[in-house]
Write a structure and sequence with these properties.
Chains A, B: One of its GO terms (molecular function) is DNA-binding transcription factor activity. Chains A, B: InterPro entries: Tscrpt_reg_Rrf2 (IPR000944), WH-like_DNA-bd_sf (IPR036388), WH_DNA-bd_sf (IPR036390). Two copies of one chain form a homodimer. With 144 residues, chain A is mainly alpha-helical. The first copy, chain A, is built from six helices and two strands. A two-stranded antiparallel ribbon of chain A has the order 1-2. In chain A, helix 1 crosses helix 2, helix 1 packs across helix 6 and helix 2 crosses helix 3. At the A-B interface, helix 1, helix 5 and helix 6 of A face helix 1, helix 5 and helix 6 of B. The structure holds a DNA duplex (30 and 30 nucleotides).
Chain lengths: 144, 144
Amino acid sequence: MFSKACEYGIKAAIYIAANSNEGKRVSLKGIAKHIDSPEAFTAKILQILARENIVTSVRGINGGFEIESHKLETIFLSDIVKAIDGDNIYKGCGIGLKDCNELHPCPIHDDFKKVRNSLRKLLETTHLKQLALNVHSGTSFLRV
Amino acid sequence: MFSKACEYGIKAAIYIAANSNEGKRVSLKGIAKHIDSPEAFTAKILQILARENIVTSVRGINGGFEIESHKLETIFLSDIVKAIDGDNIYKGCGIGLKDCNELHPCPIHDDFKKVRNSLRKLLETTHLKQLALNVHSGTSFLRV
DNA sequence: TTTAAACAGGATAAATTTATCCGAAATAAA
DNA sequence: TTTATTTCGGATAAATTTATCCTGTTTAAA
């Protein structure tokens, strides 16, 4: 569904969000450990999220990553997916046609439109705060 | 969503189905041309579909690929996707956790379950005959 | 029986994705 | 100011996916 990079990105963002919600900044090392991802690769992904202003990075001692708390409810999964994988997953044609649309549909166009739309809606309405709260309360988990 | 190989596989299967429905056998060359795919790579994918008894291959002059007509309504998109990409796309966890389930859900488990289920249902209820008929009638298209 | 058409499948190459390494830059604390 | 910590970002490597090539086998027709 999503690329590995995107999966790491989603997990990392949720972990950072859960901590930022408590005023805690977290380091790359801590993130990689908690979401069970390769450290250096995760660094690359966090750089993308930082460039896109999804997370804030701070260098030096006691540095790390955080998300401004007022942003927690305005960053949606779609923002993260779009930054890393692009939006083809919920916009493109199911069988990869360049020119697939209502007037010129591929054979599975109508069926896939529903799935893709429900995916898009989900990603565009799920923000980091709700995910972070679930993790924090122990309702859901980020690893194993 | 699907791998390139799987996209080619779906298109090829629909094209073969549309022709088999009219009693016509089609060659690799003809398939690749009509679905706009690389010939040698498409051959590999058709080998997979042949091994899985989804399509029948015939060697030699006038050979090619066909699908037994009685099978057209019993081969579903899920069979093709499963043969090429496996079923992780509509069974696995959205963020790649090994042990994600109701009792131990990832943060996006519930939301994704719906999308994945609708995808699974779609793939498991759409058979080749209906797709082939749409292509044949000009209601939908396989390329460009 | 010879020939040409067509798929099978192993080997290899190209492209992309995933992952690692390392020096540079920034920053807070000693 | 020095030092230790931590992210940044370029280079490189490993793994996977996508794509090509070539030889062998099958088959029908000449």
